[in-house]
Amino acid sequence: MLTKQVYFLSRRTYCSVVNLASDIKNARPFSEIPKISFLKVARGNLPGGKYYKKSMREIQQLFYEEYGSIMTIPPMLGRPQFVITYNPEDFETVFRVEGNWPVRFGIESLSYYRTTKRPEIYGDLGSLFVSHGEKWSQMRSIANPILMQPKTIKRYLTQIDNIAKEFIELMRKIRNEKSEMPGDFSNYINTWSLESVTAVGLERRLNLFDENTKDENAKKLIKGIRDFFEMTVEYDGKASIWKYYQTKGFKELLNVYDTLTDVIMYYIDLAMKEMNEENSSSDTEDSVLRKLLRADKRVAVVVVSDLMLAGVDTTASATLNTLYCLAKNPDKQEILRQELIEILPDKNTKLTPEKIRNLPYLRAVIKESFRTLPIVSGNARMTTKDVVLSGFHVPANTHVGMQPLFAMQDDKFYPNAKQFLPERWLREQTEGCPRAGVSNPFTFLPFGFGARSCIGKRIAELELETLLTNIIRNFKVEWHYPDMKIKSTFVNIPESEMRFKIIDV
Ligand code: HEM
């Protein structure tokens, strides 16, 4: 029963794909999808080649220009064949048939490490990040009620707000005589992100803002997470020979995994020791870590590792990108500040769930920043049924990479797409401002879709909203340098020195 695409427009979204077998019969054959040849990719990756040392985003752009909105990449060095599509109508088709256990081809080096190098910990356990099928589902069923409950996450608001307020003091301390942030401000934001995620996942303050108290394990954790993102893009994001021959670089990646595992085990053991020693109060009983440990210590290690790997650079980049958008659009920054002054007439007041409940402009700003400067480059799923994508028949069990970047910046889907217009996301329409996402909501899925969507969404939103509220309530943020450059790995990270100028308000 596949695919006659009929869209029912509702107030906020549209649905759904009506599938007809006749569409498959009438579709063009799979073999006619434009192909990227193995030789072309291999040659392009050599020094001097078209794709040599190019970021994922640049490679996407080159593919799009050369092959159009859909193409296939042949199986290569142990990686399966992939269909790549830039067409949002295809995204809906693929997501609608993802089934109960969606498969997202991903970081295979991490699965390899976990199953072959540290089976005593990870052995038979699945992982949120990299497993598939029943093992992923078992882990997700344990983690969902713990991490997706607004109540559980909100209990961290005070802690996350304290961390944000300490970060504001740090910003005051590190600004130079021109009132600018240092060139490595991204690293500071990264430490804020790790400090916040460990406060939730490990129930622990690492005190990363204080050079004197920062312990060796915390330093290893920061470096390990950054290395993970930079190295996996080479070994998992691109064709690599590691499945046949383990190069020095790949062995270094395995060492990074080892370090991360050991450090996380260390902190979990420490937390367990402290929990056993203290009299448990009803408040701590509720914590994420306690709930995970109640399931099993190894489950806690896997879930906390996944949260660390997926939750630090993503939230850090989202914060930097949003600050950059606000600095480049001072009028929008001012509207946001007025909203924040209403809930925080005194900027030192502590945030409460009531205060942050009604912040529509802040949420619209974050969405618009995700649209203009996306955090992840795309998403992927394996089809569970035969489908029609961009008019071609794509059989079941095909891996499909979905790239929304160009749609999000297309006037067809987002009128005046080049402009930063948070108003397009507000429920109450602003006169003269186009509405976002009406023509196709599948163009905008910053946290993914369905059963496999980002499990850290609520944590990320809490962290982002809390820090941005504190920064914009305390400082006018300005940008006086050429446009920011992006380094595109699995996550799009600012490459430029983020020398924001901050002025107390
Ligand atoms: C702005 C910040 C973030 C963005 C934009 C983001 C985005 C995403 C996306 C697009 C996915 C793939 C979803 C899919 O396949 O449909 C994902 C998965 C995931 N994210 Fe996030 N994420 C963010 C922050 C976080 C945080 C803070 C954590 C943890 C504390 C986290 C943990 C995870 C995990 C564990 C997965 C894998 C889930 C699974 O496959 O079951 N993320 N994220």
Automatic annotation (TrEMBL):
A Pfam family found in this protein is p450
Superkingdom, natural source: Eukaryota
Cross-referenced CDD domains: CYP24A1-like
Q: Which residues bind heme?
A: 454
Q: Which InterPro entries match?
A: CYP11_CYP27_families, Cyt_P450, Cyt_P450_CS, Cyt_P450_E_grp-I, Cyt_P450_sf
Identify a single GO molecular function assigned to this protein: monooxygenase activity
What PROSITE patterns has UniProt attached to this entry? Answer: CYTOCHROME_P450
The record, for SUPFAM superfamilies, names: Cytochrome P450 (SSF48264)
The keyword Metal-binding is assigned to this record: yes
This protein's UniProt keywords: Heme, Iron, Metal-binding, Monooxygenase, Oxidoreductase
Names of required cofactors = heme
Q: Which family does it belong to?
A: Belongs to the cytochrome P450 family.
Q: What's the name of the protein?
A: Cytochrome P450
Instruction: Name the species this protein comes from.
Output: Chironomus tentans
